[in-house]
Amino acid sequence: MTDVLVRSPGASAPGLRRVVTRLNVREETTMQDHRKLGRELELFDTDPLIGAGLPYWLPDGATVRHALEEYIRTAERRAGYRHVYSPVLGKRELYEISGHWSHYSDDMFPPMDLGGEQVVLRPSLCPHHAVIYRSRSRSYRELPLRMAELGGMYRSEQSGVLGGLTRVRAIQLNDAHIFCTLDQVADEARSALEMIRRAYEALGISPSRYRLSLPGPGGKYVAAPEMWQRSTALLTEVLDRSGLPYEAAEGEAAFYGPKVDVQVVDGAGRESTLSTIQIDFHQPEQFDLRYIGADGAKHRPVMVHRSIIGSVERAVAHLIEQHDGAFPAWLAPTQLIVLPVSDAELPQAAELVRRCLDQGLRAELAGPERGSLGARIRLARLVPYQAVIGAKEAVDDHVALRLRDGRRLDALPAAEVLDRISALVGAHRTDLWDGDAEA
Ligand SMILES: [Zn+2]
After folding, report:
1. Is residue 432 scored above 60 in pLDDT?
2. What are the sequence ranges of the domains in the chain?
3. How remote is the CA of residue 177 from the centroid of ligand 1, in Å?
4. What percentage of the chain exceeds 90 in pLDDT?
5. Residue 208 pLDDT > 80
6. CA 20 to 30 Å from 14, out of 49, 89, 98, 231?
7. Is 336-426 the same fold as 6-323?
8. Has residue 284 got a pLDDT over 60?
9. What CATH number is given for 6-323 in this structure?
10. pLDDT in the model for residue 1
């Protein structure tokens, strides 16, 4: 389970204040902005008939989301995760066993009566994954067993707090659960931190702070002092050894265990959790999870919950605001726009678009019927690459490439341009050309 609550920054670290200040300079960017930009750029929208907190994704938004999801799936496959699919519904008993029913029901949709049974829209993926783990007997040789899913979950947010993609009732979560031995927990948490670092680099975002989220007073948390102590010590060690600055915060833990939360701040200074790593001794106990050890006896695994980008909705909202709609090329809905100077170059332009598509690049043709070259370039200002084809380029099979940041390159062979762009996109680079920083 991943906590995706928004909180105002309280006692903020110097780093956090710096980020807030920097973002505030951009004037009123933010929540409103991601909603406004999302609508202007036709990424997503909502309709009262579908309901509050239930946005739909338009083709360009769906393209960004798909690129993001594929990045995550690929990174997870490389890190030894296997993907599963599990249903968004489950019987009430499933959540009674996991503890959600008693600790978390305020955030859950009311159960539905179905043929004498009660089913609920799930508030998290963990219970399904625990059940999948125990669907057959497991050996210590299979551990750490890393189970990942980009799956739906639901939260009964009050209508007053809903907005854009940041507070939604239907959430697509980048989630994973690692079932492992106690000895393996620290390494797994460390590699999850490293996956987060790499993802943020590719996405061009930076955390405002790392937070060690601990339980607070009140009955929100499962009562097992020794378990809390052990998992807190493990996470503290991981953070200390990582060299990352972090702050401990009481009252921010999951009900079943402490967490490392990676926080980001939007333009209005609102802080939220994007990524998280959690250690859980509780649910393995509740679901009676076991593995057969080298000694032939049954042992209890530990569950590490982790999310690299949190909910897809919140991640995309943050990316829209962070980049003002000018996504890194690998995420951009249209990566390359082909601009023939006149109708005479239309055949070569259409052919270039076809070559881009064959090469896996998202390209579009904008011909003279859409206006002057200058007007077309302005319209495509968020597209990372603009390939201009004039009479000379058409004859030579060259393109005059303009980059989104205003740089103009000398005419280059079309094949070379496409290869270089493909390489940058394939490596999830945030710079547009050969290591130069985007202006
Ligand atoms: Zn979980």
Report:
1. yes
2. 6-323, 336-426
3. 6
4. 78
5. yes
6. 231
7. no
8. yes
9. 3.30.930.10
10. 52
Q: Ligand 1 centre from 89 Cα, in Å? A: 15
Nearest-CA neighbor of 254 among 132, 104, 108? 104
Cα-to-centroid distance, 304 and ligand 1 (Å)? 8
On the question of pLDDT at 24 being above 60, the answer is no
Q: Ligand 1 centroid to 118 CA: how many Å?
A: 22
Could you tell me the distance, in angstroms and rounded to a whole number, from the CA of residue 278 to the centre of ligand 1?
A: 8
By 3-state DSSP, what share of the chain in percent is helix, strand and coil, each rounded to 5?
40, 25, 35
Query: Distance, CA 3 to ligand 1 centroid (Å)?
Result: 10
Q: Give 125 Cα–ligand 1 centroid separation in angstroms.
A: 6
For residue 258, the CA-to-ligand 1 centroid distance in Å is 12
Q: Which pLDDT belongs to residue 104?
A: 84
What number is the average pLDDT over the span 374-390? 96
Annotation: CATH topology of 336-426: Rossmann fold (3.40.50)
How remote is the CA of residue 61 from the centroid of ligand 1, in Å? 27
Distance (angstroms) between ligand 1 centre and the Cα of 124 equals 6
As a whole number of angstroms, the distance between CA 49 and CA 34 comes to 22
Total Cβ atoms within 10 A of residue 246: 19
| Beta pairing class for 302-307 and 170-180 | antiparallel
pLDDT in the model for residue 33: 82
Give the Å distance between the CA of 276 and the centre of ligand 1: 10
Distance in Å, CA 1 to ligand 1 centroid: 3
Contact 4, 311 (CB under 8 A): yes
123 alpha carbon – ligand 1 mean position (Å):
10
Distance 178 CA to ligand 1 centre (A): 9
Please check whether residue 14 is in contact with residue 22, taking contact to mean a CB–CB distance below 8 angstroms.
Answer: no
Q: Above 80 in pLDDT, residue 26? A: no
Rounded Cα gap, residues 175 and 132, in angstroms: 14
- Separation of CA 284 and ligand 1 centre (Å): 11
Tokens of 188: 């797994």
The span from the CA of 265 to the CA of 26, in Å, is 13
Whole-number Å distance between alpha carbons of 182 and 64:
38
Confidence of residue 60 (pLDDT cuts 50, 70, 90): very high
